[in-house]
Amino acid sequence: MMMEPLAANSSCSNGSLLSISCLSHQVVCQVVGGADLADPVHDNGTGDTSWVTQLESNYGFYIGLGLAVFSSFLIGSSIILKKKGLLRLVEKGGTRAGDGGHGYLKDWLWWAGLLTMGGGEAANFAAYAFAPATIVTPLGALSVLISAILSSYLLGERLNLLGKLGCMLSLVGSTVMVIHAPEEEEVTTLDEMLFKLKEPGFLAYAVVLLAICFLLILYLAPRYGRSNILIYLTICSVIGAFSVSSVKGLGIAIKGFFAGQPVLQHPLTWILVITLVASITTQINYLNKALDIFNTSLVFPIYYVLFTTIVITTSIILFKEWVAMTVVDIIGTVCGFLTIILGVFLLHAFKDMDVNLGNLPQVLQSEQEAPVIRDDKNILIEVDNSSIAPEDKSKALA
Fold first, then answer.
1. What is the largest CA-CA distance in the chain?
2. pTM over 0.85
3. Per residue in 243-256, pLDDT tens?
4. 340 touches 173 (CB < 8 A)
């Protein structure tokens, strides 16, 4: 196609005639108005959304990171607000929630905590749409850290030396993961998501996870669920692979919806919604069973480790967010994750110990001077031996 001004008016100013030739056709056009090509409003009608695309491409990772940290702060704070509401109910003489009471529903502080938790989950949901799952999921440990710090100031709960060390390690691990995390997003549309889900590697991985779930739910849980803490928590963690993948896909669908894409007509959108509802329902059911039977200080660290490990594995297989990473970044991300695990373990496992810088020498000394505990069998043997006369012992040995 050729476009050239006619000889009668060789310029391209207002009122000029232009000849456009395409194969055997020729059209004469007249310039009736001028426009600045640099003006984004005349850029094929895409100027209204170009800044949004540019913002997401340049700062999408940091938006997701900020949403993940903000989500952790809201969720950690919501635990404190709800706890304060429950404590006020006890102070007023109401029936405790553990005893079947529902008086906390009349307390505005408890509702504030519930709404804050809802806002935190919404921010976490949005974070998956901008940042890789390998960075959003591990940062969930910050909510544990924030709730532990706030509880020591607002609820009067004690945060010992090991707990403070655990908080510090969690912060260091989170920082290392953020520095070495992948910043490139591999899946941006539902069609790309569907293509990823159909890959043989992920299909085989999903079949293995479903087989493990059915084995745990139908055979192991009824027999060993109440005696082994790993049964219920493994079910929650394995199901979490499907819930996080669904959240990631729905985040992509929501971005496409605001971009004008027909995501509601795409069958994958509704498949993801059904999968998310089913997986979250199953997770809540078995997590409540674990919390009802086992110690909370053991449930949360183990659940965090199992859940995050499976989510990162799913991200590697499905989204391939680690493909563009260097060896140094991969090692840094793994080390950061292990540091977070150690911090969460220290924060929960030793929270009931009275350890601080002031009494640390006494605690170490008392541990070294701890008396030897003898069981009933040893005591019984000593009593029997002492009741036997020396001549009887020699006869017995003879």
1. 140
2. no
3. 888 888 888 888 88
4. yes
